[in-house]
Specification:
Blueprint lengths: L2 H20 L3 E8 L4 E8 L2 E10 L13 H17 L6 E10 L13 E5 L4
Parallel strand pairs: 3-4
Antiparallel strand pairs: 1-2, 2-3, 4-5
Family: Belongs to the UPF0102 family.
Protein name: UPF0102 protein C7R93_11180
GO molecular function: nucleic acid binding
């Protein structure tokens, strides 16, 4: 992955985290890695555990950020969530999968991005 893409992804995750905290969610984990893959953010919304996939785009040339989540990616996230729940064996009354789609627009010459547009899809799948 190029440095530009990695930095865009990190920036998107930071924006998503700030957005979620402003909405009252409490972040409990970030970038949870397993042999199978990675979950971007995990948060609590009241008693509901929320697995959050963050997608950030600076262009919509290849489609929107939310359109980039395929059936295969959804299935992988479900498997990762089950693995996380089993590993952290705590009683969880409910859980859901959210998607945060961020469009930053083109970067300026200084490397800064335009004001981002954040879309939050609760219970996305």
């Amino acid at each position: 992955m190029s440095d530009r893409r990695r930095l865009l992804g990190q920036r998107g995750e930071q924006l998503a985290e700030s957005y979620l905290v402003s909405k009252g969610l409490r972040i409990v984990d970030r970038n949870v890695r397993t042999k199978r893959g990675e979950m971007d953010l995990i948060a609590l919304d009241g008693n509901c555990l929320v697995f959050i996939e963050v997608r950030t785009r600076s262009s919509q040339f290849y489609g929107t950020a939310s359109e980039s989540i395929t059936w295969k990616k959804k299935q992988k996230l479900r498997e990762l969530a089950i693995e996380y729940l089993q590993k952290n064996a705590q009683p969880i009354p409910a859980f859901r999968f959210d998607v945060i789609a961020i469009f930053t627009g083109a970067s300026t010459q200084g490397g800064d991005f335009m004001k981002p547009v954040i879309e939050h899809y609760e219970s996305a799948f």
